[in-house]
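Protocol step 4 of 6: record predicted structures for both targets in the notebook before any analysis. Target 1:
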Amino acid sequence: MTDDTRQRSRQLDRALTACAEGRPEGIDAILDIEGSQLLGVARRILIRHDLAEEALQDAMVLIWRKAAQQRQGEGTARGWIYAVLRNRCLTILRDGKRLSSLSPDELTRMQDARQDLCHDDDWKLLAGKGRLGECLDALDDPARRAILLAHVAGYSHGEISARQGVPLGTAKSWIRRGLASLRECLS
């Protein structure tokens, strides 16, 4: 871990502590440190900028309310913040009401854009230059793609199986073994 990464990690820990204590500067600090990256992740998942902004705002409200639930020994503050955002984005996608004004062609284009993240090297930009990027790079391509389809693009195991043309059990195994390798690599 670089000094810059450690410093950002400590800043995010302090920001979450501030949120848990009801101090609004915690949210400001999170947005100062990770705001543009958070919006970028939401935009990659949701494609539409207005929905990405909505997801980010909703995620910040959830982070404010639930900051006390994040346990420092059970993962990083950054990982927890991104998980909250990702889950909010996936909820918006599942809800579908906001997407109903889109034509079938636009919906297909959104799905294709989600899939494209996992085919080229865009995932490296998302993971950054830290340890996560190195660990993802160490995975074999099918496992990495399956994990990214599930945890970044929000596909179900069945959808991943169909998209990769493999049996459901194979897709699940790739994800399970890949996540185990990531855990080992990151610890």
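Target 2:
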Amino acid sequence: MDCTTVWCTPPFNTLYCEALMTALFALATSLLWGLADFGGGLLTRRTPALTVVVVSQSVAVVVLGAVVVATGGFAEAGPRLWYAAAAGVVGPVAMLSFYKALALGPMGVVSPLGSLGVAVPVGVGLLLGERPGLLQFAGIGVAVAGVVLAGGPELRGAPVQRQAIWLTLVAAFGFGAVMALIAEASTSVTGLFLALFVQRVANVAVGGAALWVSVRRGGRALPAEGGLAVVAASLPALAFVGLADVAANGTYATAAQLGPVTMAAVLANLYPVVTVLAALVLLRERVRAVQAAGAGLALMGTVLLATG
């Protein structure tokens, strides 16, 4: 993608343009992931987590399938799709763990810890030879610290809280792996649509198999109260969660292709700030001083990364 001719006009130079567009696409990713996580965690409080994953991702499969057909994306099939398939296998495990952790809550604690998965794509970027400047290294440290503090981390407490933390750490590693894999899954826009479609098909296959096993073992596929009627009433919200997650993967892959993976990964992982703000506004969760300080640090880290 020629950033100078497609996205910018003079007097912007190519390097500045790439950094700017990387930052914008990565921040769009954080907004979409933050809203998707808030919606998914909220839905999981009434509906089994596996059902939320399978239904939301099934909606995404239908929409992406139509987009791939309309754009001729199947012509882009190639070996890189194995990265998308691998991301599709890892994704449901991460989402299931994260939604369960969010349901145990509070969201303001769980969501920031989930962003620790940024270590995976950042590590991949460094192994591939990326060397951020001094200000960008400082921005990475400040942003990650801010995201963790934005949740007002509470690592002590009842067994349920400890379970939520362990589930979140599993999810964090999985999310980081998905980010690294999806960034390698395509080199063009139509190829990206196909990669996201393959990823979502794998998501549904793995999640559906897990749901079937869960039901066979006595688990529930439908809410204890309301059953299928609750799932049907939640379809718009489930569709939003699935499509927002897909869009976030797409904007992240674009950000990683336009500029340094290290910058894209850290900025994309500001999504917990969005989740915390949504919980504050919609659920009236109280914000502690450490959370407010963390949000400020995350913003400062964003500025350092974008201008470093």
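Step 5 preliminary note on target 2. Residues 156-160 have pLDDT under 50 and may be disordered. The radius of gyration is 19 Å.
Proceed to step 6 after PI sign-off.
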